[in-house]
Amino acid sequence: MGMMDAGQEMGRDANAFAAAFLNGGPIVDALMRTTESCSKACLAWHEEILRFAAERLQRDSELGQALANTRNWADAAKLHQEWATSTLRDYTNETTRLFEIAADAGSKFAQTSTQAAAEAGQTMTAAARSTTEAAADMADEARSEARSTEGPRPRGQRRSQSAE
Predict the structure, then answer these.
(1) N or C: which end of the chain has fewer CB within 10 A?
(2) How many Cβ atoms sit within 10 Å of the Cβ of residue 26?
(3) Cβ distance 138 to 7 under 8 Å?
(4) Predicted structure pTM score
């Protein structure tokens, strides 16, 4: 195989590798897993906020109905105080739930990213080895081809080149 043929073959190998790597390789897999993890976390976050909002609207509605049925200011003040206390407690609990969802999502994201990076690194290392081996083969072939076309050198030329 000539040097041009070897170069073309190496180019085809590199193109095939790039196509395989980008069309379902570790980078695409990592991106897909990370996107899925992020989407699940966003969905969990939104579901929790909707659940909380519905619960708070229900409690606020109940307060309005209870206030409409009170007979004096003392009862209304007591209802409002209980409502304010429960509202503060609910918002504190909701903040804790949202932080837990975010922490869980961050943990899953970090784990997914670490796995994907390791897999991509292994693939890139294998590709680098393959490319290095192909380049070494091409260099050996080029030296061999150069030797076969040079013919013998005059003695004086050998000495001057070996001194350099």
Answers:
(1) C
(2) 19
(3) yes
(4) 0.56
